[in-house]
Inverse folding.
């Protein structure tokens, strides 16, 4: 009985000692696990609020064949337009209009990393005119060209293409022009879809037809 009694006392002492080792830092060092806030899906105050270039999860339709870019605010576009022919004009109810002013064709000539000598490309000269009463931000414009199979074609950035993006804020009554180049062979020029996603307020401008 004496040995059994000593064993029990020793076991109890070990448990008390272990509890003191594990419980001490929590008591003096801050909150316990139960006091910490639960995890949530909302953004933390330190996260960037800059617009993202990633596509949104919204479903595509015939009139909007490419998902809209995720921008700050996240509200769905409230000003819509109908698609136009590639030689026509996309018009919005607030007075904003877009058109393809010109198309030029060429082939890459220089060699080096990321270059494809002999690859054909098309340079689209685009114009946005702001006939609305609100400023239109152009810093997150994304232009996509789909081939006859509705698959996106690659963008081209070689120096000889002389590309230039839309940027800045477009004031009411003003217009802006930019050039975008795409790897488009001659066999694909007769049927394309050009999608211009220029801000979060308007649906994307869509042009369908041939490029010549």
């Amino acid at each position: 009985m004496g040995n059994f009694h000593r064993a029990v006392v020793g076991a109890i002492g070990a448990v008390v000692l272990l509890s003191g080792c594990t419980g001490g830092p929590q008591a003096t060092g801050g909150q316990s696990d139960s006091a910490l806030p639960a995890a949530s899906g909302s953004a933390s105050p330190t996260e960037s609020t800059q617009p993202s270039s990633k596509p949104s999860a919204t479903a595509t339709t015939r009139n909007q064949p490419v998902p809209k870019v995720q921008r700050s605010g996240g509200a769905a576009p409230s000003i819509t337009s109908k698609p136009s022919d590639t030689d026509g004009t996309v018009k919005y109810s607030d007075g904003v209009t877009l058109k393809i002013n010109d198309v030029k064709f060429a082939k890459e000539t220089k060699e080096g990393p990321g270059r494809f000598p002999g690859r054909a490309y098309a340079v689209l000269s685009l114009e946005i005119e702001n006939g609305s009463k609100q400023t239109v931000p152009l810093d997150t414009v994304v232009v996509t060209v789909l081939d006859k199979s509705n698959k996106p074609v690659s963008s081209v950035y070689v120096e000889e293409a002389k590309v230039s993006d839309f940027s800045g804020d477009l004031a009411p009554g003003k217009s802006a022009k930019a050039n975008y180049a795409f790897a488009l062979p001659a066999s694909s020029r007769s049927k394309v879809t050009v999608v211009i996603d220029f801000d979060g307020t308007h649906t994307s401008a869509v042009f369908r037809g041939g490029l010549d």
User: Anything to note?
Assistant: Confidence is low (pLDDT under 50) at residues 1-57. The first strand starts at residue 84 and ends at 85. The two ends are 104 Å apart (CA to CA). The helical segments are 2-29.
